[in-house]
Amino acid sequence: MRISTHLVNVITGLSAISTGLRIPSVSSGSYHVGLNIKALTDESRWDPYAPIDNPQKRHVLISAFIPIDPQDNSCPHGEVNLPYMPPKTRDVFGRQAEAMGLPSGVFEDLQLNFCRLPDTSRLRGKAQNSGTKLPVVIFSPGRGVSRLMYSTMARSVASHGYVVITVDHAYDASIIEYPDGIVITGVVGEANQTVLETSAKVRSQDIKFIIDQIKDNDTARKHFGISGTGGIFVFGHSIGGDTAVSALLSDDRIQGAINLDGDMLGPVVKTGLDKPLFLIGRPHSREQGPSWNETWNNQRGPGMMLQIDGTTHQSFLDAPLLVSLRDVPEDSKAKVQAALGTIDGRRMASLVIQLTAAILDLKGRGFKTAITTISSTGKTPPDSPNMDDDISNIAKDLAPVVEEAGEEGVVAVMHSAGGFIGSAALKGLTSKARKDAGKTGGVKKIVFVTAGVAPEGFEQGPMEFFDYHDSNGTQSCKDPRNLLYSDFSDEEATRWLPGLQHQADRGWATKVQYCGWRDVPSVYIICEGDKLLPAELQERFAGLAGSEVVRIGAGHMVQLSQTEKVADIIASHVD
After folding, report:
1. Each residue of 303-312: pLDDT tens digit?
2. Strand, coil or helix: what is 218?
3. Residue 430: beta bridge partners?
4. What is the DSSP letter of 134?
5. CA-CA distance, 82 to 96, in Å (whole number)?
6. pTM of the predicted model as reported, rounded to 2 decimal places
7. Whole-angstrom Cα distance, residue 328 to residue 319?
8. Which residues form a coiled coil (predicted)?
């Protein structure tokens, strides 16, 4: 099989602009970001959507968002402002936006700021991030939607240290405008089951082709300026989410997938996956059709299913953020909310980026991860679970992870109240307990992140930082802005505060029966700026557990404010 690539550097085809509305960075990491746009042709495949009288080999147009070494305090080759969309694409999606009730000219004069990248032909075999194999994330857009409608998200995710590649699948987007001026319009047909499954299959083959290119070190270095790749992850929105999952099922090189509010199609619904799968959607997305629940019931690998309040299907584009930059007439706000949801545009962008970055931070480093929750959170008595139920549910989530990990073992990360609840859930699952039972593997280390640690017999009493609501038997943090988000800017704190939920009061009225930290070595991350659990209290917790101590200058929600640093600490203690 012969595969060739035809590549065009967009920086020579797009003129930099000095005036216009610059789109702000949201939830950025420590890396600067550069942009390459490439047109690639797969000589091994004919395009099934090309005109009958003009057969063509399959091609894709991609945007590659390249992290620049954070050791450089500024862009080493200078900065450049580029238009968010080229003119014809902007006009097409501008008309579509107006038809949805969005403000007229929402895409006009928008620009994104990037570091200039050197001409890859001048690198003489050297990569821009020489010696570093960066993890790669490939993104597939919604049906009929341009990859450009996710550029703000892609740029922010790349700033966390990932090469992010967004893809326009030929004849799928409403319009694809190539750097050489060629324009292709979409012809994918009506959205019935057969059409969608065929489209997802063709798209997943596009993803495989892109991986072939970046896995070839010479191609990656010559055309993308990267020296090979670390782990590979795929994600997408709508049918792009299903494309990501289909690619995960068919390509062993992919480590995991995130589906943003897309239906599940094809065999994965019945077969499930052994690899990590994350389903993130709008409210009631799991009730819209059976595919999410059926896939989830058959899922064997780690994963998470999450719904974001106040969202619609279109909330997962850049559109909510872009609209927040404009003045929306009062009589248009109802239409805008119907189209994009009631959630604030900047908060939505921040949530998606932070969730994606948090999922990827360990996945991209080659670790398999699983997320569990405290089941009583957000519940109201008398039907709410209690702490024993929480412990039991966490143990049920953890047991298959321990089995899958085998001899490699599991590192359990516990934050806040998850410290004493999670420790109690380790009974029978530690490496010591498994060895005593003649089994291998088990939980081999605990990482406490500003977490509570309690001895056997401990029963949580009233706490001064909680408000207790006798009317419905719940409790909630008194001053979350200052106690939980003390090291956040007002803007960042405002985005996260609405996501907090109450705790059922009866959820704490249970005594600790088992302490996993007695059987498992631990590391304790002390957050020296924590206003909820002061550093002195954290030191006592660490001393009780006999933990190795690592200190961070951060508040209580350090996993949000310093995600990369927390991931670094966890990774450094996996042995």
Report:
1. 788 888 889 9
2. helix
3. 443
4. E
5. 22
6. 0.69
7. 13
8. none
531, two tokens: 């206003």
**Using CA atoms, how far apart are residues 143 and 130, in angstroms rounded to an integer?**
36
Count of alpha carbons within 13 Å of 3, Cβ hemisphere only?
A: 15
Tokens of 171: 């004849």
Q: What are phi and psi of 22, to 5 degrees?
A: -80, 130
What's the rounded Cα separation, in Å, for the pair 513 and 507? Answer: 15
- Please give the distance of CA 91 from its chain centroid, rounded to a whole number: 30
Q: What are phi and psi of 333, to 5 degrees?
A: -65, -35
Q: What is the dihedral of CA 347, 352, 357, 362, to 10 degrees?
A: 130
Q: How far is 242 from 256, CA to CA, in rounded Å?
A: 13
> How many whole angstroms separate alpha carbon 255 and alpha carbon 259?
14
CA–CA separation, 401 and 392 (whole Å): 15
- Give pLDDT tens digits for 257-288: 999 999 888 888 888 888 888 889 998 766 65
Stated length of the chain: 575
CA–CA gap between residue 380 and residue 392 (Å, rounded):
19
Residue pair 504/474 in contact by the 8 Å Cβ criterion: yes
